[in-house]
Structure formats: structure tokens, C-alpha cells
Amino acid sequence: MPRVVIVSNRVADLRKKSQTGGLAVALADAMRERGGIWFGWSGETKEEAAPAVAETIGRVAAVSLPLSRREVEEYYLGYANSVLWPLFHYRLDLVDHRPNFLDTYAAVNRRFATELVPYLEEDDLVWVQDYHLMPLAARLRELGCRNRIGFFLHIPFPPPDMLAATSNHREMVEWLLEFDLVGLQTSTDVGNLTRYLEEHMGLEEIGGAYRHGSRQVRVERFPIGIDPVGFAAMAREEPDDVAIDLMRRKLLGQRQIIGVDRLDYSKGLPERLRAYGRLLVQHPEYERVVSFLQIAPPTREDVDAYAEIRLELEALAGSINGRFAEFNWTPIRYIHRPVSREKLAPLLRASDVGFVTPLRDGMNLVAKEYVAAQDVEDPGVLVLSRFAGAAEELDAALLVNPYDVDEMSRRLHQALEMPLAERRRRHEELLEKVMRQNATAWLESFLEVLERPDGNQEAGTADQVAA
Ligand code: ADQ
User: Fold this and answer.
1) What is the DSSP string of 149-209?
2) Does residue 259 line the site of ligand 1, with CB under 6 A?
3) Residue spans of alpha helices (H) in 327-398
4) Tens-digit pLDDT profile for residues 27-77
5) Is residue 155 within 6 Å of ligand 1 at its C-beta?
6) Ligand 1 geometric centre to CA of 290 (Å)
7) 3-state secondary structure at position 333
């Protein structure tokens, strides 16, 4: 079985069990089993760029390099998170393109390719993760790399007309054409990319792949998943402070709605808080009974749009609490800090409603974690945005339009009043999907397609002969 070389913006700390990013959680589990190399940024910022260093942890070698201050500003915070992130989340209004962003993004990808090549063996499968590294296959090919290279995009792929609002859209898609396989989260994303290939580039699908020049690329859907069995086990283990809080709430007959997200404008947090506020206005009987716990740890705070959403959220939580709080009851508990997964899992289990309402999300693993964490005898209800990738599979949830505050408030009410039989029926259907499309299935199915022979091997040999 060939080795697997994962390349992502950040190399996760494989010794640490609690990870904050969805990507790290899904891959770390699978990599520990399979072995291979994980290559990427170490997370350190140095005055000057420095070379990569390797560290072996179990069967996985982590190879990481620090970035220079300028690279962090212009590649990571800049092009990746101020241009690509908003653009791919359908937020053209938040795209903040500045001089040097694209050049530094290209340069970091070139440097990643140069540093990675010495570690590669002939048969390695290279698997590149996410929007930070779209040009990587093109740069590796320039250095003579003939390995199978796959790409998985964790975030949505925007519709062709939206992509076309950036000046270098064609170049972006040409980067992707250098991979052997491009994996996306949903059929909507696959449709968006293949429409671009067909309508903007005149490419045609033949035998499941798009041919261009001497190469061909497959574009397929691989919805990412979690480790539902492990997460459910964690959810049943309550740390003391969580157990005490649960007991107190039970005693007082209190119920809880929960939200867990990185504090990101794509997650629809202000709309979510407003919907909860509306619920309290429309159903005064929920006062002192139904509270809302929102956990939203900080990310990317050096990007202006993130600082703004934080202020907006704090003001909103303050005003709703100011209006409804009692001396002994706080409607919204808003935590702007990371919470360990050991606490998160039982908190999800102990909540009557999982409120997951991103305006746009590649998948959203919290939705799947909420389902996995529930007590099957007495499960809570998932209220889920139609615009989360997860909605494509989890259609037994109560699906909502995350821009429609009234609808969300009505669905919260429906969730809180849902009879046990219906809760069980919906949960059973959801759990079946979460179990089936788990992290291992996602990883295995991607690698299986990446390994499948196609015309690119011959094209590689022909190039070699010509060279
Ligand atoms: P994210 O945008 O980070 O991921 P998500 O899929 O919800 O979003 O994953 C977040 C992960 O971090 C979850 O496992 C969650 O439990 C954890 N987490 C969140 N807040 C936490 C906290 N306070 N403390 C501890 N853990 C916390 C990106 C895309 C998603 C896609 C994933 C995976 O934006 O759409 O689903 O990658 O592909």
C-alpha cells in the first residue's frame, strides 16, 4: 500500500488530542492508523523564512516549516483568508484584495513544493488539503513530480459567475487542473466547478474525467465525516463541572439550545442570536426555562472582518441579555474561548437543540457531532442551515434558511416541543448517515479514487520520454 503524504496549511500537533479545526480532527485520527508524512506550516512566525524540519511521531512524520511575518500577513491572513475564504463563501462584499497578496500566496506555494520534493518517494500518494494550497500541484509538476496528487477543498466552491468576479479566476481553476483528483464536499460544489470547466473553459467530461492537454482530472464529491463512535463515547463521560451544571439544570427544569463554532462571519452567528431573542419575545413561557449556550472561540483576529463580527456579537448578546436576564437567570451564555472536546461532547449531549446555522459552510462537523453525541433513547433536535454542506445528507434535521430570523425562531419552537417519537425517528435517520459517512470512509474513498489508474500515468511517461 503506498504511503500517504498529506499537505495542509498547518501541521496539526499529533500528540494533542483536542484540536480546534475540523480538518485537523478528521485527518489526525486517520493518519495515526495509516502512517505517512504530514507536511505544512509549523504555526511559528519568524522574522525570516526558514527550512523545513522533520519530526517522527509514531508512524507519522511531521515535516513543518515556519513562515516569515510577511508570509503570514500576505499569504495566510491575506490571500487565503481575506480573498479566497470570503469569495468561496459567497461573500464578495468582504473580499479585501491588496497588492502582494497573490504574489506571496504563489511564492509560499512554490516554497512548499521545493521543500516537499526531497521527502517524496516515487509511489507516494500526495493529498493536498484546502484553499491555501491550490497552486501546489502545478508547482510540484514544474519540479518534475509525477506522483498522483489529489486535492480536497474543505470549503464551498462558488458558482461560476461569482468566481468570475475575481480577476484571476481562470488561473485559479487552471491550478486545479494539475491535480489528478479534485474532491469537494457536496454535489452543489461539484456542479459549480464542473459548470465552470464546461461553460468558461469549454472542457468536456469523458469517462468521468475532464481532459485538458495531455492530462485529465476527476472532480468528485466526498462528504467529510467525524469519528462518531469515539465522539459518542466522549459525550457519555461527563467531567465533574459539566455533571454538576447538568444536575442543577435538571433540578430547575431548565433546557438548553447550543451552538459551537469558530467565531467566523460565515457561521451566521448574529442571525442565530436574533432568532433566539425572537423566540423569547414570541414565547414568554420560555423565559427562565430555555437558555442558549454559544461557544465561539476566536480565529484569524488580525483580519478586520473578524474583529467586526466579534464586536457585533458581543453587542447583540449584551442587548438580549440586558433585556431578558433575571438576577438568577442568564439567557445567553456566550463563551469566546476554546473549550476542550472532552467538555464539548457532553455539553452537546445535554442540549435539547443543536442550533447550527451557517450562512454558508463546506460541511459543518458540529452538526454531525451533535447527532453522534445524543442519547438515542431521548435525543435532542438538530436545527440546521440549508446552506451547510451537511444539509445534503442530514435532511432529517429541521432545515432552515439562516437569513430568515422568523423561520429560525419558529423551528426552535418546533424543536423544543417535538414529541419523543418524532425526535427518535429523525435522530435514527441522522445517526445512520453520520455513522456511514464517517472520517475513515471519507479518507478511504478519496484515496481509492486517487489510486485508480487513468490516462495520466501514460501522459507522465510520455512527458518523461520527451524530456
Ligand atoms: P470549520 O470552519 O472549522 O471547518 P467545522 O466543520 O464545524 O468548521 O469544524 C469545527 C471543528 O472544531 C469541530 O470538530 C468542532 O467540534 C471543533 N470546535 C469548534 N469550536 C470549538 C471549541 N470552542 N472548542 C473545541 N473545539 C471546537 C472547515 C470548513 C467546514 C468543514 C470542515 C471539515 O469550514 O465546512 O466541515 O473544515 O472539512
Assistant:
1) EEEE--S----HHHHTTSTTHHHHHHHHTTSSEEEESSHHHHHHHHHIIIIIT---EETTE
2) no
3) 341-349, 365-373
4) 766 677 677 899 999 999 999 888 999 998 887 899 999 999 999 999 999
5) yes
6) 25
7) strand
